[in-house]
Amino acid sequence: xxxxxxxxxxxxxxxxxxxxxxxxxxxxxxxxxxxxxxxxxxxxxxxxxxxxxxxxxxxxxxxxxxxxxxxxxxxxxxxxxxxxxxxxxxxxxxxxxxxxxxxxxxxxxxxxxxxxxxxxxxxxxxxxxxxxxxxxxxxxxxxxxxxxxxxxx
Length: 153
Hints:
This protein is α+β, with helices and mostly antiparallel strands. 22% of the residues lie in helices and 27% in strands.
């Protein structure tokens, strides 16, 4: 995994988690459905919307990270948003150095340049913004180097 700075030891996520549901559908780069029917909007990021040229790339990367995997959620707000979605920080278990740790999914997507930081609780915006800056430096997502022959289309 690329976001090693986004790995969290398992014991740090026990408080405030909403269980370990399984992702059964990945609707976009920042929206998933869980096995209990809940829909989760990722807190602190905004993924490309349908019709955006990066929409499918963001959805596919999110799919790679979470589909059919148990995830840990830390709710960003106690009640669903106006669309009935839970708003949460999402962590996916990964094996690293022989130990189970949790990958911060929003941070990983930002490192790939596939989501942008959005207003969130203090500290998270800055963390996602740092990942976004790294994606720019690495030329990922919308910051991919452009072929001069195809630019401007």
